[in-house]
Amino acid sequence: MGDRRVKRTVRLLRESLMSLIIEKGYDSISVQDITDRADLARSTFYLHFKDKDELLYESMREIYSDFLNDVHTMTDFDHIAEHANFYRIMFSERGSMAFMVKMRKFLADIMKTHALNALIPPDEEPHIPRDFIAHVMAGAQIAMFSWWLENGQQPSATEIAQMGQQLLLNGINAAISHEDK
Question: Kindly report the CA angle at 59 between 57 and 64, in degrees rounded to 5?
């Protein structure tokens, strides 16, 4: 029974944070704002999280875990569209630089383990380090997300995903070719 209460508490805190980010921007939110919105005591918050950053990162980790489980049925742009109001704030000056850095690292890890391994055999080392390629891809992905949100989510999620894939794959293929340019 305690586990169910913990899950409920964490869900309330997460939902409160997400709605407050959309209303106020990330930097202006306090732990007190989050607990007031969730109708919980501050002490309850600190039983689960050390600060609002940890709540944000844990929330994003869970959202991305859900996304990765659904990756065969939705694109990353579908995921961004589903949470557009949140990302629109977090990718703006009202967001968090720490969030952007963690997101880039998270996406780079995904790029290394999924995208690059599909393009470059694991036993083959390109002349540009995999880690560098993955981080550049992740940064480009964030830039595409941001641009797409700023432009009213046009073109469609499917179209922008295809455009991004074409752009990134052409760049990666050029980067991993063994020709010196």
Answer: 90
DSSP 57: H
pLDDT value at 31 more than 60: yes
Contact residues for 95 (Cβ-Cβ < 8 A; gap 6+):
25, 26, 89
The runs of H, that is alpha helices, within the chain are: 2-24, 31-38, 42-48, 52-69, 76-82, 84-90, 97-110, 117-119, 130-150, 157-176
pLDDT at residue 181 greater than cutoff 50: no
Nearest to 140 by CA among 120, 169, 118, 116: 169
Asked whether the beta carbons of 116 and 134 are under 8 A apart, the reply is yes
Instruction: Please say if the pLDDT value at position 1 is more than 70.
Output: no
Record the pTM.
Answer: 0.78
